[in-house]
Amino acid sequence: MNASNDFDMIVIGSGPSGRRAAVQAAKIGKSVLVVEKGRRVGGVSVHTGTIPSKTLRETVLNLSGWRERGFYGRSYRVKQNISAGDLMARLHKTLDHEVEVLEHQFSRNGVSTAIGSGRFLSPHEIEVTGETGESRIYNAGHVLIACGTRPFRPDYVPFNGINVFDSDEIIELPKLPRSLAVIGAGVIGVEYATIFSALDVSVTLIEPRNTFLDFIDKELIDEFMHELRDRNVALRLGAAVETIKVNDAGKVVTALADGRMVTTDMLLFAAGRVGATDTLNLEAVGIKTDHRGRIVVEANTMQTSVPHIYAAGDVIGFPSLASTSMEQGRVAACHAFGLQPPPPPEFFPYGIYSVPEISTVGMTEEEVRKREIPYECGIARFRETSRGHIMGLNNGMMKMIFSTKSRRLLGVHIVGEGATELIHIGQAVLNLKGTIDYFIENTFNYPTLAEAYKIAGLDAWNRMARP
Q1: Residue 186 known to bind ligand
Q2: Binding residue per annotation — 54?
Q3: Do the annotations mark residue 191 as ligand-binding?
Q4: Which tens digit of pLDDT belongs to each residue from 405-439?
Q5: Pfam families, alphabetically (predicted)?
Q6: Which end of the chain has the lower number of beta carbons within 10 A, N or C?
Q7: Which CATH number fits domain 164-271: 3.50.50.60, 3.30.750.24, 2.60.40.10, 3.40.50.300?
């Protein structure tokens, strides 16, 4: 550990991009300090975002018996009376383990940590102020801003931590509601709406736009919406929120622009996030942010407008994935110290941990049409596979898109159980520029859901004109 106040690199934030950058720099012999304003390392990803929401999802699916309902009926439950305490017990155990792994990783790589809020005093000076008000000034040759984001909290939403929550607060909910309104049908809103729906909570999903998750293939979204409606999730699309009030009975009343009133026990506001950059004193170094507090960087180097200051992760905006954030952090550390990392692969997967999961890689059918590429699609439904029968799956589908000219795979889109795991086969074939022949000729384990690749491949092959 570095006992002085001088470091080769200071990393502000210990989320996916921050930790990866810190370890990468340390592995090439550089002195690194990670500044974390939370009480423990891990950042938003570990404490309020990625890990908590996915842990909550897994706990809900296990305790509710969701995966077995295809056999035993919709009323089946592993635990009849599920409480908020049941959900929190597994959550805290998982988070403790994640933090311990990260602390050990920092320790064995010689990465120093400072708990407190960091702010720039000058381009190379960072002041870190602890909870009790004490401060210390550190110097660094390079700085990585990896502070992440926080929920957008508009004034018209009466957040109270009792029955009106943002997406950071919802993981500490005091009790399970019988009804829930979710405002914002983005990734976070959709994930929480479907997780609570799996607990048989009556959910209303509100989105001012007429569509949602527009980067996902439309046919997949149609399938997803059909399943949500089948589970009695109320979709209120194209309806802006006018007012939100808590009435005398303790109910949350949401008035929509179309005249509808949505009355629920609880409300989750999940319409956007903003960069947590307002406390960094970026004015001291001449770095500007957009209206959502995000920082613009060079795509290949992660450099900001100040060459020795980098930014990575959610604070730079799209795609805001833990997986891509890790790679951005590594790229920033490599560039800072003169290493040339290999170019990133052309295609990376996008995973939405809703119930059911959605995962996609490559081009959607809409994008293929826009680029006027001759194409054909193949569809496989999970109920067509023997593993699907064994698991009792009634829903779930895979869609594959191929070029009819080159026969190359253009995109894979999956909704259903295990989608975020299954997608990696399609990702590998895409990045290796594989064709439909791989899926036709390859042998997959039997019985597996991965057989859907062969079924969808054969479906597309049967539709393609052949000499």
Answers
A1: yes
A2: yes
A3: yes
A4: 999 999 999 999 999 999 999 999 999 999 999 99
A5: Pyr_redox_2, Pyr_redox_dim
A6: C
A7: 3.50.50.60
